């Protein structure tokens, strides 16, 4: 039987022919492979594939989905990938798109964590990452311009975006406070538009009552099953059980992205459990930034080292692999659940003008968030030393101009030329800048 996608019969602006399921798989895998550079770059890549090139999802619907994902704990880019898959093929589409976004990076991190545990840092990986980071920066800037041009159509939206950027970048305001404030300002200050969508209404009807309870119960069982098995087969004090409990807790409180949790995660992993040293934690963050997928995959590195050093009754390598798999499972499974529970209702909200205005406020704040990430990312790409001015009301990153990296700036300029002038694809930009980064580090004697 030929597979058919779920299409929007009412709001077709920007939406073309629905994809075959195999096309969704291929595109999702491509996004998973090239999703370097953190959430801003990953959202940019999804926007480019799903909205601009494939035209499977409209601009309005993509931003609506992004707004919801920004409200959730966990990696927003992975949740957005899941949501996009859900829009096209409901639960099986969401599972496929979400998994294919995670798996390439998770596999790469697993390999790198194993190499690190056996041999230490690998200069070749660091050199490739050096060029990739500079290239990804151009993709982030392109996303910022595209999202901003479509989201900032009212003066108040511009003010919300600017205030969000300053709140995050200069004053260190917690991310949830920024998003909730933007939603409230948007609800009462922006003009929303109502879009009636019979398909969304049907989805909500199908998700009410028993349907909602079934999805919730299934998701909780799937989430908890591996940790429960580990506790029964081994002991509640086994490292696999400790890992599952700790990272499950992080998965439900991780508002604002991985960086918001790094200090707490490092403190617990280093001081409480003794799984690793502080220096190894920083190495893990560096590896997470060099691999595709969400930055929160640094948790996989932590889990691997914990299992590698407390492997009984397995070998160190087997213990590390099992612990890494457990960490990925409990970290990302909740994100699928949030989407499958909430997406039908969020789609229904497109029919409410006041709530639509609130979502527009979030969209404006998201623009400021992407700008914050872009500037933060640029500072850490272009400067070797970035200090943090942390006062009572101020939390401002300040680069040491003496540590400017001219080579990184030149690589970013090459990437910008490829992105904006030649309109090159993500694969080309990543490949060219990775090879250039490798060449420059080799010439400098770093490898």
UniProtKB/TrEMBL annotation:
The chain crosses the membrane at residues 95-116, 128-145, 157-190, 210-234, 246-266, 317-341, 362-389, 401-419, 426-444. One of its GO terms (molecular function) is chromate transmembrane transporter activity. The keyword Transmembrane applies. Pfam families: Chromate_transp. Keywords: Cell membrane, Membrane, Transmembrane, Transmembrane helix. It comes from the Bacteria. Its main location: membrane. Coiled coil: none annotated. InterPro entries: Chr_Tranpt_l_chain, Chromate_transpt. It is found in: Cell membrane. The keyword Cell membrane applies. It is a multi-pass membrane protein. One of its GO terms (cellular component) is plasma membrane. Belongs to the chromate ion transporter (CHR) (TC 2.A.51) family. This is Chromate efflux transporter. It comes from Stappia sediminis.
């Amino acid at each position: 039987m030929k597979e058919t996608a779920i299409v929007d019969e009412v709001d077709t602006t920007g939406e073309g022919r629905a994809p075959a399921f195999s096309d969704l798989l291929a595109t999702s895998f491509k996004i998973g492979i090239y999703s370097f550079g953190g959430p801003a770059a990953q959202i940019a890549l999804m926007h480019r594939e799903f909205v601009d090139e494939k035209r499977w999802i409209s601009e309005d619907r993509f931003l609506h989905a992004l707004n919801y994902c920004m409200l959730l704990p966990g990696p927003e880019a992975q949740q957005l990938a899941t949501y996009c898959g859900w829009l096209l093929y409901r639960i099986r589409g969401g599972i496929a798109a979400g998994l294919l976004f995670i798996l390439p990076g998770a596999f790469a991190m697993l390999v790198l964590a194993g190499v690190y545990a056996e041999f230490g840092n690998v200069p070749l990986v660091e050199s490739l990452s050096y060029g990739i980071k500079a290239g990804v920066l151009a993709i982030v800037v392109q996303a910022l311009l595209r999202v901003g041009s479509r989201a900032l159509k009212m003066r108040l939206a511009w003010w919300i975006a600017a205030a969000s950027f300053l709140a995050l970048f200069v004053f260190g305001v917690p991310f949830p406070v920024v998003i909730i404030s933007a939603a409230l300002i948007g609800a009462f200050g922006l003009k929303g538009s109502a879009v009636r969508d019979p398909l969304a209404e049907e989805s909500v009807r199908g998700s009410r009552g028993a349907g909602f309870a079934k999805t919730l119960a299934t998701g909780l069982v799937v989430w908890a099953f591996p940790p429960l098995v580990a506790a029964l087969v081994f002991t509640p004090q086994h490292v696999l059980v400790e890992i599952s409990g700790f990272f499950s807790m992080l998965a439900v409180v991780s508002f604002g992205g991985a960086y918001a949790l790094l200090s707490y995660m490092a403190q617990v992993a280093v001081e409480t459990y003794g799984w690793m040293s502080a220096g190894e934690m920083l190495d893990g963050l560096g590896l997470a930034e060099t691999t595709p997928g969400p930055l929160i995959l640094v948790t996989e590195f932590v889990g691997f080292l914990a299992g590698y050093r407390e492997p009984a009754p397995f070998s160190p390598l087997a213990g590390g692999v099992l612990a890494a798999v457990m960490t990925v499972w409990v970290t990302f499974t909740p994100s699928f659940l949030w989407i499958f529970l909430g997406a039908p209702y969020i789609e229904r909200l497109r029919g409410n003008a006041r709530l639509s205005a609130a979502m527009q406020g979030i969209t404006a704040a998201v623009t400021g968030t992407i700008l914050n990430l872009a500037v933060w990312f640029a500072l850490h790409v272009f400067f070797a030393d970035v200090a943090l001015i942390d006062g009572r009301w101020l939390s401002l990153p300040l680069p040491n101009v003496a540590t400017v990296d001219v080579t990184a700036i030149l690589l970013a300029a090459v990437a910008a030329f490829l992105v904006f002038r030649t309109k090159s694809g993500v694969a080309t930009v990543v490949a060219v800048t990775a090879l250039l980064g490798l060449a420059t580090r080799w010439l400098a004697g770093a490898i």
